[in-house]
């Protein structure tokens, strides 16, 4: 148990003040000095606040007869609802603004403050005055004389505090000087009386589920049996923004009054259906962040409270004595994802749906979503650390996290990830998770946090390529300071983000230019390569063609050489001139195409083929050249090659012309 929890427990044990909100208020006034706070409550001087020690704006005071202001018991029950309400004002029971202006005086028994009670019963009224050291039992005895109702059968409705010991003095209850109460009588005979007592006890300690239909919405709200009808109406004011005076209800019993507990209102238990609508009269709507405070004076002046409580060190105070809740994360949770989803479900069930959006995945995914992105898409990672044993937890969750401006900031600029470290096993699990994602230094910083500093928001940013813990916002802050701390973080983050976005854009532009240059270079290189390849292919084709031509020429030469050799083998030697029979010889002159001539003697009996063979041997084959006789002009290559020279009249001599084909 932390030091402040011990002081709070000792203070309540010494003074009997069960209201945690009031107890914390007294301790804050005395800087958590136990003896000073006890003396403040027990001594007669504790009945008024010193004006020179407290600013009127530190705690907003609301009288009992203002329906629009949310009393302290409303805040107590609202923390038990499935929906989270923003409480417009904090009420310190028994004190009005008049009390704050009164100087502190010492009073003995003879100068005790007188408390007046106006009690209604069965259409009758009784006014009773008792000193402030009297008890509830003394009041019931006085009512027994007035209305003839036994003390054991009396139930008083309209107390600011419920379930008080009947022997508790009024000055410890911190009630107003004037009080309006209703007297309800329990059953008649002893047997019925016992049954009604048991039934009433069950309803008072039980939970009512109210199904409230408003327009096209249905709210399923849970209230304790000791919660009043006014608390329900104020709760719906927080949800629908319809002030209590402008609410029109269908479903309440006719005799119900605002100060009645639900257990005595006559509605169905454990579930009851109601319909809410707005009155036709003009409704001066106020923002959820504003409160209406009624000053205890004759002219009943109303003033608007600011969105947040003035003063950076102010606390939201609410009744922390709500029913026990199941932990947000079960003990010894093994799987991180299971712990996260359970945390979100139970947080909404406990504090209502009006809260910032928690990231529904493991811390590694939240870190990826917030920090490991381009600078323009980054956010701040906020790790919410919850601890049920901290006295600040209920206030922080139901008030600060439910504040509209806080929710807008967290949803827009942050990725919110939550974890409950109430159990040591879950704290060790968080240490392992943080260590594996953020390093041992961050894990050590979170491990050393004291329970008194919880709940807390651990802000993590990615700056200059490094992801580190930037700041830790603890739970003992007012709304102004909490918003200021968030704004500081956002301003630093956005300033650095702009710098990194600009650097990333410049780097991206440089990379784009470099990429374009690389593309142009590669395209040029590819073009040169293609050009070289085309040239190479062309050269290869030309070389292949040249080789092919050379091969063809060589083949042709070999073929012609073969023809020449064959013709040479067939050709008979030239007949000598001295041959006896001159008439058997003819002399043929061949006029060449490029000038010059050839001459040879042939036998007149030789065939025209012999003439062709001679020309072939000399390099003028018949396939390339034609033999033309001069007169008559004839193409001898087209004539039958078996005819003799004699038959063709090519003797005793003849000149023929060779023409290229």
């Amino acid at each position: 148990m932390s030091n402040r929890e011990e002081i709070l427990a000792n203070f309540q044990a010494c003074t009997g003040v069960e209201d945690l909100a009031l107890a914390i208020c007294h301790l804050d006034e005395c800087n958590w000095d136990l003896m000073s706070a006890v003396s403040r409550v027990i001594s007669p001087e504790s009945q008024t606040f010193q004006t020179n020690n407290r600013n009127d704006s530190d705690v907003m005071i609301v009288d009992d007869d203002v329906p629009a202001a949310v009393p302290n018991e409303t805040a107590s029950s609202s923390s038990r609802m499935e929906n989270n309400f923003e409480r417009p004002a904090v009420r310190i029971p028994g004190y009005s603004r008049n009390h704050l202006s009164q100087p502190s005086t010492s009073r003995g028994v003879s100068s005790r403050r007188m408390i007046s009670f106006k009690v209604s019963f069965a259409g009758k009224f009784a006014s009773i005055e008792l000193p402030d050291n009297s008890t509830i039992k003394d009041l019931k005895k006085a009512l027994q004389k007035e209305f003839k109702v036994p003390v054991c059968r009396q139930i008083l409705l309209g107390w600011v505090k419920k379930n008080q010991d009947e022997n508790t003095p009024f000055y410890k209850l911190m009630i107003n000087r004037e009080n309006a109460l209703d007297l309800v009588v329990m059953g008649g005979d002893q047997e019925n009386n016992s049954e009604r007592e048991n039934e009433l006890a069950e309803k008072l300690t039980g939970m009512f589920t109210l199904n409230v239909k408003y327009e096209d919405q249905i709210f399923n709200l849970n209230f304790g049996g000791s919660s009043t009808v006014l608390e329900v109406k104020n709760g719906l004011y927080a949800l629908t923004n319809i002030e209590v005076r402008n609410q029109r209800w269908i479903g309440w019993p006719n005799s119900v009054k605002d100060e009645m507990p639900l257990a005595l209102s006559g509605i169905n238990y454990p579930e009851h259906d109601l319909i809410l609508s707005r009155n036709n009269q003009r409704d001066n709507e106020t923002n959820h962040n504003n409160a209406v405070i009624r000053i205890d004076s004759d002219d009943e002046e109303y003033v608007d409270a600011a969105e947040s409580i003035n003063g950076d060190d102010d606390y939201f105070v609410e009744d922390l004595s709500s029913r026990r809740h199941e932990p947000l994360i079960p003990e010894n949770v093994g799987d991180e994802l299971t712990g996260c989803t359970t945390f979100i479900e139970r947080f909404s069930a406990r504090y209502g749906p009006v809260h910032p959006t928690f990231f529904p995945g493991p811390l590694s995914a939240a870190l990826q979503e917030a920090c490991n992105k381009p600078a323009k898409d980054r956010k701040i990672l906020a790790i919410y650390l919850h601890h049920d044993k901290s006295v600040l937890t209920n206030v922080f969750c139901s008030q600060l996290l439910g504040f509209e401006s806080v929710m807008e900031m967290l949803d827009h600029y942050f990725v919110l990830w939550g974890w409950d470290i109430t159990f040591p096993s879950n704290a060790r699990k968080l240490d392992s998770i943080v260590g594996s994602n953020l390093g041992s230094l961050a894990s050590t910083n979170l491990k050393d946090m004291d329970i008194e500093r919880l709940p807390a928001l651990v802000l993590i940013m990615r700056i200059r390529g490094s992801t580190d813990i930037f700041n830790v916002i603890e739970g003992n802050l007012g709304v102004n300071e909490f918003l200021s701390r968030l704004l500081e973080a956002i301003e630093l983050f956005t300033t650095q983000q702009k710098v990194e976005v600009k650097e990333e854009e410049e780097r991206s532009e440089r990379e784009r230019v470099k990429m374009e240059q690389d593309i142009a270079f590669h395209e040029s290189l590819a073009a040169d390569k293609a050009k070289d390849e085309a040239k190479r292919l062309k050269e290869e084709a030309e070389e292949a063609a040249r080789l092919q031509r050379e091969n063809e020429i060589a083949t042709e030469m070999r073929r012609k050489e073969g023809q020449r050799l064959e013709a040479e083998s067939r050709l008979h030697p030239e007949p000598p001139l001295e041959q006896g029979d001159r008439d058997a010889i003819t002399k043929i002159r061949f006029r060449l195409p490029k000038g010059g001539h050839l001459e040879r003697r042939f036998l007149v009996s030789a065939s025209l083929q012999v003439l062709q063979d001679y020309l072939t041997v000399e390099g003028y084959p018949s396939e390339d050249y034609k033999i033309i006789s001069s007169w008559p002009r004839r193409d001898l290559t087209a004539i039958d090659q078996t005819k003799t020279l004699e038959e063709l009249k090519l003797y005793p001599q003849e000149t023929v012309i060779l023409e290229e084909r």
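The first strand starts at residue 114 and ends at 121. DSSP finds 17 helices and 19 strands in the chain.
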